[in-house]
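hey can u check if this looks right to u? its 344 residues, i copy pasted from the old doc so theres a chance i mangled smth
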Amino acid sequence: MSLNHACPDAPVPEIANSARLLGQVWLGVGTVLAQGLVVRAHGGAVEIGHHSAVLENGVVVGWPTAPVRIGQRTVFGHRCQVIGATVGNLCEIGNGAILLPGAQLGNGVILGEGTLIPPHTTVPANAVVVGRPARLLRSATETDRDRIARLRDYQLELMEHSSIPITGHVPAGVHMGRLYSYRGTRPHLAEGVVLFDSAEITGDVHIGRHTIIGAGVKIIGDSRGPVRIGARVQILENTVLHLLPDNELIVGDDVTIGPGCMIHGCRLGTSTVVEPAAIICDWAEVGAGCLVRAGSCVTQRQRFGDLSIIEGMPAHATSNLEAPPQRPGWALAPEALDTICQLG
């Protein structure tokens, strides 16, 4: 992951046209926010330090009780999910890494691709960490540090300079986003749906009342089977929903699907929560009131009963809940919509 495309002396952040900032975000000098990135900040709870970069199709979400604080000259690879975590200076975060609320990474940390840092985990400075869930592999070597320096053109100095607040408000509402017909069938959105402007929906898709479709979400009903999404559902940033031919995708009422997920031709029961970057494959069935942990992979035709806690790759049920899970802190509270989007 190289910063060579960024201007090292840029006085203002470099934000791609297709990136989306929702709410007030604090950005340092020379910060790079790449294409398709979504940064959602509630109460100004995201800060990205000088000359740091978050690359394509990642998601960063912070809120007052779980802020995101990213140090200087740290680089996140493609499709990283940074949810309420703190990261030090000069870190190298591999593609597809997942950092969960309360995680803290010291300076100079290296994460392998796809690494999952569980909630409230502390990673010491200069650690090399891999795995899902994460495990300490070793300490960074001189070779590691030279590679990090080379990727930054040996510009490693830290700055004493104030960040600047940038507030992003994006259009959202039932008439926003992009709706595409497929073989004469056009998506149907019920009353009160909130569709962010960079979301795209295609074909045989029905979405229930007061559902929220987040920035960068893609829902693709271009198969012979339908996509049916219930009421009061949340499908959050950069998630993809699709299905194979002769299959169907059914999402029950009050489901919450976190950022960066892949939901493919399955059934999700009422009030289930799917945490960030989880994958649920074709013909799988997840019962009502379940919790699918971040980064898990529910494989084809797996079935889980109501109130299951599901995790792992491949996923398995680890225990049961006594009641359906509450919406997590990274979800979108309806009252927060006024501060991050322009409802229309």
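Residues 1-8 have pLDDT under 50 and may be disordered.
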